[in-house]
Amino acid sequence: MVGPGRTRCCGPPGAAPAMNCRAEVLEVSVEGRQVEEAMLAVLHTVLLHRSTGKFHYKKEGTYSIGTVGTQDVDCDFIDFAYVRVSSEELDRALRKAVGEFKDALRGSGSDGMGQISLEFYQKKKSRWPFSDECIPWELWTIKVNVVNLANEQERQICREKVGEKLCEKIINIVEVMNRHEYLPKMPTQSEVDNVFDTSLKDVQPYLYKISYQITDSLGTSVTTTMRRLIKDTLAL
Amino acid sequence: MDTDLSSQDRKDLDKFIKFFALKTVQVIVQARLGEKICTRSSSSPTGSDWFNLAIKDIPEVTHEAKKALAGQLPAVGRSMCVEISLKTSEGDSMELEIWCLEMNEKCDKEIKVSYTVYNRLSLLLKSLLAITRVTPAYRLSRKQGHEYVILYRIYFGEVQLSGLGEGFQTVRVGTVGTPVGTITLSCAYRINLAFMSTRQFERTPPIMGIIIDHFVDRPYPSSSPMHPCNYRAGEDNGAVYPSVEDSQEVCTTSFSTSPPSQLSSSRLSYQPAALGVGSADMGYPVLFAGGLHAAHPHQLIGPGKEGGVPPIPSQPAHGTQADQERMCTPLDGVHYSAATPSSSEDTETVSNSSEGKCGSPHDLLETIFVRKVGAFVNKPINQVTMANLDIPFAMFAPKNVELEDNDPMVNPPDSPETESPLQGSLHSEGSSGSSTGNTHDDFVMIDFKPAFSKDDILPMDLGTFYREFQNPPQLSSLSIDIGAQSMAEDLDSLPEKLAVHEKNVKEFDAFVETLQ
């Protein structure tokens, strides 16, 4: 979905990531009301590692970095707590995307299976008339299977089990993060918007986009929605 | 040829490692204070936020950490360890986690200190923030308060993992290579949290003493982060098995020290005594032992005998108070032995009913049914109850009141239990799943299914059933109004009757003479 007058990003929707893009897949089975919290927990944990403080460039080409605060979030429907970056803007953006995903999962044609993807990319400016290229360098995919539970006892067990599963997922994420594999180089001032999302006022995550797919009961993916969550009114 | 580290780089690196160690301790201890942590992001660098992360510095913690480090830095063979332990209000303590900041010899000479190492240390701290919320001790620490507190201890030197019990797990938070070695941050955490029930854990005096004792009698205001004794009555936390609430603690205690086999044997030994009084009495013990709750078994199981319960009021013929008490004893046993290991307070057994009692009555039930002759032989419990559900209600309704009055089980000295067993059975329905899910080597978990807990048999829930039973409508013949009416009528008609009898007095006299 490309709005008019916006810079188009590369590739058709759902295209495979570039060859040296790191891809990680996580799978969770949750009850309907747990979808939101589970997705937020994973996405926030990833973004915690992929956000820095705001850069302040100084004259000599050096820069200083702002401070990233963190806060604990308790889940209501899962026996789980996670840490997220203290940024209301970022939280709002994630909640919006996860909310849409949740609604799509609930919608008709879905048997409760879908996946949400968080992709980090870099922009490579091209000359006119070519549009800028978006080169993904890390892709996180969370596959979700929504289960229906019959009674309160099962729900209680589900609360605990999903909490334990999410703990495992957090450990997996941290393990990947600490491999210290490719990260974009720290950009100069002119290049910073090609690497980081500078639209937020308190933190600076790497450029990212969130998309999701819902699998219908036939097992084919019927909806691919690209949502752009950066203000890429970077439209020059 | 190896490029040696420049002195500036070396100084920077040492400083980074030192502050990294201090911040690591702060993150770990703050994550165990029992409160939600919240710090603000700031777009303008303040210059005092190491690693570009807003991590508060609690002065006492910094002081202790510096004391432990004593001017040294983590190096090969010299690790900085933060030990997190739990201490109950009774003084028992247990190590929960050991967080280790270690250095090994693997060097990365190429790496840039001021930039890459610094950023990677920052990433590692973020990972630490995430991982500290994921180990079992986090949830325990969020619930600390009056029953237990979480303590920390910092030491420097060799890592000591022996206090974590068997089968502890490790999670690696991350590593950062530096020109002088690779920094590794990991956590070893205990998974066997069952010490409280067995109280076998020996106290190991900490080497450096307990740093901060959070245990106080009343909660401190939350503005003072070092005294997080805020009691959180959180939801039952089944995932962490001894999630320490009163009921859970007592529950595990009672369960482990009263294995079902003891109760069964006491039951069996009792039965021969009952046999002598006839088959009706066979129903009697079954009634009592058929479940947790005295009232229910009467109604559900006995009836199959067509007289299972009635024997109770007519019991005096066979003896008695003594008999009644004896019959009650095994069930008393069920109730009380479940609570014995604890201090057998009412409230404890009450709130405990879910798991503490779950195994034994079920076993008892099975035992009895297997041994009984007659209607119940080899019938599964459900069938038995199903077949006989209708009968007792009508028969027993008026007698219930008497039963309960006489029945020491229903009105035992600790009478609150009669209320709670209801909740207990409801609870056990809910928690039997989780309890069976938590298999622990120290406990024998038995899935408790109260005989009539399934609602596909009767379309009413246990609570409704119990309440209806407790408050049956009174028989019309016994109602006072009607009785009073009939008596009034009797009194009214009395003079007439007397008059008639007087008239016939001669006939009566003649009749009497014929008798003599």
What descriptive keywords fit this protein?
A: 236 residues, alpha+beta, five-stranded mixed beta sheet, disordered N terminus, B: 516 residues, five-stranded antiparallel beta sheet, 5 strands, rod-shaped, Autophagy-related protein 101 (chain A), ATG101 (chain A), autophagy (chain A), protein kinase binding (chain A), cytoplasm (chain B)
What would you say this structure looks like, in words?
The complex is a heterodimer of chains A (236) and B (516). Chain A has one domain (25-55, 64-225). With 236 residues, chain A is an alpha+beta fold. Chain A is globular. Mean pLDDT of chain A is 83; it is low at 1-17 and 222-236. Helices cover 27% and strands 31% of the residues of chain A. In chain A, a hairpin with a 5-residue loop joins β3 (55-57) and β4 (63-65). Chain B is α+β, with helices and mostly antiparallel strands and 516 residues long. Chain B has a domain at 7-196: HORMA domain (Cell Cycle, Spindle Assembly Checkpoint Protein, Chain A). Chain B is 48% helix and 10% strand. Chain B has helices at 7-30, 59-69, 113-131, 136-142, 195-198, 246-257, 260-275, 279-289, 295-300, 311-314, 320-339, 346-356, 359-371, 381-387, 390-406, 416-437, 462-470, 480-503, 505-515, and strands at residues 79-88, 93-104, 148-157, 169-178, 181-189. In chain B, α12 (346-356) packs parallel to α16. The model of chain B is unreliable at 197-397 and 399-440 (pLDDT under 50). The interface between A and B is large, with 45 and 45 residues. Chain B: Residues 89-195 form the Autophagy-related protein 13 N-terminal domain. Chain B: InterPro entries: ATG13, Atg13_N, HORMA_dom_sf. Chain B: Residues 298-358, 404-438 are annotated as: Disordered.
The tally of beta strands of chain B, per DSSP, is 5
The global form of chain B is rod-shaped
- Percent helix of chain A, as a range, is 25-40%
If strands are numbered along the chain, what order do they take across the biggest sheet of chain A? 1-8-7-10-11
Structural class by sheet pairing and helices of chain B: alpha+beta
Q: Provide the succession of SSEs of chain B.
A: HHEEHHEEEHHHHHHHHHHHHHHH
- Enumerate the spans of chain A where pLDDT stays under 50 for 5 or more consecutive residues: 1-17, 222-236
Please outline the major beta sheet of chain B.
5 strands, antiparallel
What CATH architecture of the domain at 7-196 in chain B would you give? 2-Layer Sandwich
CATH class of the domain at 7-196 in chain B: Alpha Beta
Instruction: Please work out how many helical segments of chain A DSSP would assign.
Output: 4
Give the averaged pLDDT of chain A, no decimals: 83
The biggest beta sheet of chain A reads: 5 strands, mixed
The name of the CATH topology of the domain at 7-196 in chain B is: Cell Cycle, Spindle Assembly Checkpoint Protein, Chain A
* Total number of beta strands of chain A: 11
Query: Helical content of chain B, roughly?
Result: 40-55%
Radius of gyration of chain B: 35 Å
- What share of the residues of chain A does DSSP label as strand, in percent? 25-35%
Instruction: Determine the most extensive contact between two protein chains.
Output: A-B, 45 and 45 residues
GO molecular function, one term (chain A): protein kinase binding
Main location (chain A): other
Subcellular location (chain A): Preautophagosomal structure
Organism (chain A): Pipra filicauda
